[in-house]
Design a protein that fits this description.
The protein has helices spanning 3-11, 24-29, 34-64, 67-70, 78-100, 102-108, 119-130, 135-163, 175-190. By secondary structure, it is an all-alpha fold.
């Protein structure tokens, strides 16, 4: 399976948010404005791509490579190491955004540091291990997964802004209508399933 196929599949057919429903917390909380959604989406793309590459190197270069030397399986440390790498990168992104875009930094608020526990980013690193991707495939999947997540949150932000001018029945206002729209978006993205799929 080529890297390009993995990227396309990660964006459309196997969208990490709409197919696996990973990263829903910040998706629901930060999709009120398109500017905020785009900023958070760009941060997720950067963090997911970089951490997937670094976690691949650490997993295969340190944990797997040194297992015979130490005569023990070190792969059980993957969760701790993956989260530590993600936390370090999110700290870097947070400092960068605060320095160069204070308005975006204040708009994202608490949800920028919460990228650390965004399960979509951790999920990308775990999927690359489960699916036995090469380095290029892992980076492609990380990039495609980030783009897919950013696409989903941006689409939701646009729809939520349009809903501001609509009359929504009282029982459906708030989170209820957002969950319904998320389900409809997930079904719409399933329409791409005939193009390409990754397992």
């Amino acid at each position: 399976m080529t890297t390009l196929i993995i990227i396309v599949a990660a964006i459309f057919t196997n969208n990490i948010l709409l197919a696996s429903f990973l990263g829903m917390c910040s998706f629901l909380a930060c999709s009120a404005k398109i500017e905020t959604a785009l900023g958070l989406g760009a941060a997720v793309i950067f963090v997911m791509t970089c951490t997937t590459a670094i976690n691949y190197g650490i997993y295969y270069g340190v944990l797997v490579e040194n297992a015979p030397l130490l005569k023990t399986d070190l792969t059980y440390l993957q969760f701790i190491i993956f989260i530590a790498v993600i936390a370090a990168f999110v700290q870097f992104v947070e400092m960068f955004v605060e320095r160069f875009s204070p308005a975006l930094y204040h708009a994202l608020g608490i949800f920028l540091p919460l990228i650390t526990v965004n399960c979509a980013i951790l999920g990308a690193s775990l999927f690359m291990i489960i699916r036995r991707y090469s380095l290029a495939q892992s980076v492609g999947f990380g990039f495609g997964g980030g783009v897919g997540w950013a696409l989903a949150i941006t689409l939701m932000a646009g729809l939520r802004q349009k809903m501001g001018y609509s009359h929504i029945p009282k029982p459906f206002q708030g989170v209820a209508i957002i969950m319904i729209i998320t389900g409809v978006m997930a079904m719409a993205f399933m329409g791409f399933a005939g193009m390409v799929s990754i397992q």
